[in-house]
Design the sequence.
C-alpha cells in the first residue's frame, strides 16, 4: 500500500506552475479517473457502445481538490480504488470485450479490458509523480 504520510502538507499543496496540478490535485485526478472508470466498467457490462466522456481538467477544477483537506482526499482515493478493484474482480470474462465510446467530439471505442489495463498504467504513472 502507498504511504502518503511522509509528504508534508506544503508539498501536497505546491503547484509547480499556476496551470499545473499540485500533488493533491493529481490525487484528486486519480479519484476522478477511478469514478469515471467504475462507471465505464459497470455500464459497459450491460450497455454496449455507451458514450462516457471524461473532461479531466473540469473535474479537477470543479471538485476543488486544492482546497480540500488532504486526509479526505486520501481516504476517498483509497475507498474508490478498493471499489474499482472489486468491480474489476467481478466482471465476467465474456463481458471484457464489451466497448464504451470515450471520444470527445468523435467516436473512440475501447473494450472494458482496455480500460482496466489503461487505468492501472495511469494510476502507477501518477502515483510515481506524487511520491517522487
Sequence:
Amino acid at each position: 500500500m502507498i504511504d502518503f504520510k511522509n509528504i508534508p502538507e506544503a508539498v501536497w499543496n505546491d503547484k509547480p506552475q499556476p496551470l499545473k496540478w499540485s500533488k493533491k490535485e493529481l490525487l484528486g485526478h486519480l479519484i476522478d479517473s477511478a469514478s469515471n472508470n467504475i462507471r465505464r466498467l459497470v455500464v459497459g457490462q450491460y450497455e454496449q457502445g455507451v458514450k462516457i466522456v471524461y473532461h479531466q481538467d473540469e473535474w479537477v477544477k470543479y471538485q476543488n481538490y486544492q482546497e480540500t483537506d488532504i486526509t479526505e482526499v486520501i481516504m476517498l482515493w483509497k475507498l474508490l480504488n478498493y471499489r474499482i478493484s472489486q468491480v474489476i474482480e467481478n466482471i465476467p470474462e465474456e463481458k471484457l470485450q464489451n466497448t464504451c465510446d470515450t471520444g470527445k467530439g468523435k467516436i473512440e471505442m475501447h473494450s472494458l479490458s482496455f480500460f482496466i489495463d489503461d487505468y492501472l498504467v495511469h494510476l502507477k504513472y501518477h502515483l510515481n509523480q506524487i511520491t517522487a
